[in-house]
Design goal:
Layout lengths: L1 H20 L13 H36 L1 H12 L9 E6 L5 E6 L5 E6 L4 E5 L11 E3 L7 E6 L5 E6 L5 E4 L4 E4 L20 E6 L6 E6 L4 E5 L8 E3 L11 E6 L5 E6 L4 E5 L8 E3 L11 E4 L5 E6 L3 E6 L2 E10 L10 E3 L5 E5 L9 E7 L5 E8 L3 E7 L4 E6 L3 E6 L8 H4 L9 H5 L21 H10 L15 E2 L2 E2 L6 H10 L8 H6 L2 H6 L40
Antiparallel strand pairs: 1-28, 2-3, 3-4, 4-5, 6-7, 7-8, 8-9, 10-11, 11-12, 12-13, 14-15, 15-16, 16-17, 18-19, 19-20, 20-21, 22-23, 23-24, 24-25, 26-27, 27-28, 29-30
């Protein structure tokens, strides 16, 4: 009994110690684990789970093969339709941006697709931010970087931090993302015969673009007969000069220019219908030259390289679109005629998948709609077209990242075509935002007058926001007094109801507008004399019986006798 009692005492002591020290099992044996049994159990569980997953996959595969056997033609047709390039054109939705009233002659999107800039014949360059716009579709900035010169080309650099602006003057400009000038190209000496010896262009610019690999280099072409490359860090002089020549060796004007996709080639379309291509590092002789690319005397408006760099597309002023193989530059791969163009900057571009070629058509006023036409790259067969508006289509741009098409028209519109399924971001960000409501109350608040030298007792507290000022005005009984409504009836409270409801309007109506002429007081009194004599009312009726007849003295002329004997000082002076 004593031993049992001692064991109980020890167990109670262990329980007390464990409760005080914060842990249990004090003085007990540690648990033992059978690791082999646990591993075996885990292995069996994993095998059973994997077998179950495999069984479910086999059932799904069987169901899929059965459905394919039942509808082979439908699935095949669906797969073929999904692979056609026309189905990838994002044209189910569109938005319209109002640039101005004149033609939109330049379009550019930054590489990320967040901002769009438009330039036109009205000299304006407008900035559009898709993420910052609402459904009102208003530009957040508008400026005239080249004053009174038409904008001919706009392009973001490959990093998207600067913008090349080519206008109708001889000096191209580079702006930052907010529209502030970063660089202005130097103007050349127009009296030097050899244009290679001048530091810049001497005549109107026609086109320009950035280098696709080097972010500081850009290209311009001008009516002075040269194509020049520039360095963003050196504004005093051009980098290199390319001089296109005719077959007789004479100077010819380049109307458009571009880089190849790898940046190793420089191509220019000229007024004599030729397309001349140089190696970027060799500016003397051309590497490729086609003498009769387009009709002589017409302005080739655009040159565009495909994404694989093997095909060159040219939009001619002879209403044609042609494709060329760089490796065999003598004959075009395909030709499309009858594409009217009235603008020297009508362009063409390739689709992001490199299977379609897009260009716009021009129309005269009230003679139809301008179209955006899609052609297959290999055969140049018309695959699709979009009627844009009742004006010419001048510019078109298909952004590869957004998969959206931007179009500039001859009536001042910039349209964006997109598809909610095939496109992403861009125009889809702003169409879902409702228009912001204008707060008219804020415009009615008084302007804050700053008096820095006023005494502290007369100095007003600085107004931080209009909302706080509106709240203070609401508590003021004078400022928040409701205007009195107009008086109806005879009038009350000293206010007359007739003729406007105020005393001043009553006076104006009854006194100020009285047409009687009181300038002659005698005439004003005597105009009542006849009526008073014929029909007396006040004084005459009271004395009619007792009043004698009035007798008036007759007027006589008195001759004044002048006493001749009187002295001169007594005589009356007349």
């Amino acid at each position: 009994m004593s031993a049992d009692r001692s064991d109980d005492d020890n167990s109670s002591k262990d329980a007390d110690i464990s409760s005080v020290m914060g842990f249990s099992g004090f003085g007990k044996k540690a648990r033992t684990f059978d690791l082999e049994a646990m591993f075996e159990q885990t292995r069996r569980t994993a095998i059973e789970r994997s077998q179950r997953v495999l069984g479910e996959r086999e059932q799904q595969e069987e169901a899929r093969t059965v459905s394919q056997k039942e509808e082979p033609s439908t699935s095949t047709a669906r797969g073929i339709s999904e692979m056609t390039p026309v189905k990838r054109i994002p044209d189910s939705h569109e938005i319209t941006l109002q640039h101005g009233m004149k033609s939109v002659s330049a379009l550019a999107l930054d590489p990320s697709g967040a901002r769009l800039i438009t330039g036109g014949f009205d000299y304006d360059v407008k900035f559009w931010d898709f993420a910052g716009m609402d459904a009102a579709l208003q530009a957040f900035r508008s400026l005239q970087p080249c004053e009174c010169h038409q904008i001919r080309s706009l392009q973001y650099s490959i990093t998207g931090d600067v913008i090349l602006v080519v206008a109708g003057n001889s000096q191209a400009k580079v702006l930052d993302r907010d529209g502030f000038q970063v660089l202005e190209c130097v103007k050349g000496d127009q009296y030097i015969v050899d244009m290679a010896n001048t530091k810049g262009h001497t005549a109107m610019l026609n086109d320009g673009c950035w280098h696709p690999k080097i972010k500081e280099e850009f290209l311009t072409c001008s009516n002075d007969g040269t194509v020049r490359t520039w360095d963003l860090n050196s504004e005093k002089k051009h980098k290199s000069v390319f001089k296109p020549r005719t077959q007789q060796g004479k100077k010819v004007t380049p109307t458009c220019c571009t880089y190849s996709r790898d940046g190793k080639l420089i191509a220019a379309g000229c007024q004599d219908g030729t397309i001349q291509i140089w190696d970027r590092n060799l500016s003397v002789h051309t590497k490729f030259h086609c003498r009769q690319a387009h009709m002589p005397g017409t302005d080739t408006s655009c040159l565009s390289f495909s994404y694989d760099g093997l095909t060159l597309a040219s939009r001619g002023g002879d209403d044609s679109l042609k494709t060329w193989d760089i490796r065999n530059f003598r004959k075009p791969l395909g030709v499309v005629n009858g594409l009217n163009t009235f603008f020297p900057m009508t362009d063409c571009c390739f689709s992001p998948d490199d299977k379609l070629l897009v260009t716009g058509t021009s129309v005269k006023k009230d003679e139809g709609n301008g179209k955006l036409v899609f052609f297959e790259r290999e055969s140049l067969k018309k695959a699709y077209e979009i009627e844009v508006t009742n004006a010419s289509v001048v510019r078109c741009l298909w952004h590869p990242k957004l998969n959206q098409i931007m179009v500039g028209t001859g009536n001042g519109l910039a349209k964006v075509y997109y598809d909610p399924v095939k496109s992403q971001r861009g125009a889809m960000l702003c169409v879902v935002k409702s228009k912001r409501k204008e707060r008219h109350a804020e415009t009615l608040t008084q302007d804050y007058i700053i008096t820095p030298h006023a005494l502290p007792m007369f100095r007003e507290a600085r107004q931080r926001s209009t909302r706080k000022q509106l709240e203070k005005d609401r508590l003021d009984p004078l400022k928040s007094h409701k205007p009195e409504p107009p008086v109806s009836g005879p009038g009350r409270g000293g206010r007359v109801a007739a003729h406007g409801g105020t005393l001043s309007s009553y006076i104006v109506k009854n006194i100020a507008l009285d047409k009687s002429d009181d300038s002659n007081a005698r005439e004003a009194i005597l105009r009542h004399a006849k009526e008073a004599a014929e029909n007396p009312y006040w004084v005459a009726p009271a004395y009619e019986k007792t009043q004698p007849e009035p007798l008036f003295a007759e007027e006589e002329e008195e001759e004044e006798e002048v006493d001749k004997d009187q002295p001169e000082w007594k005589k009356r002076k007349i």
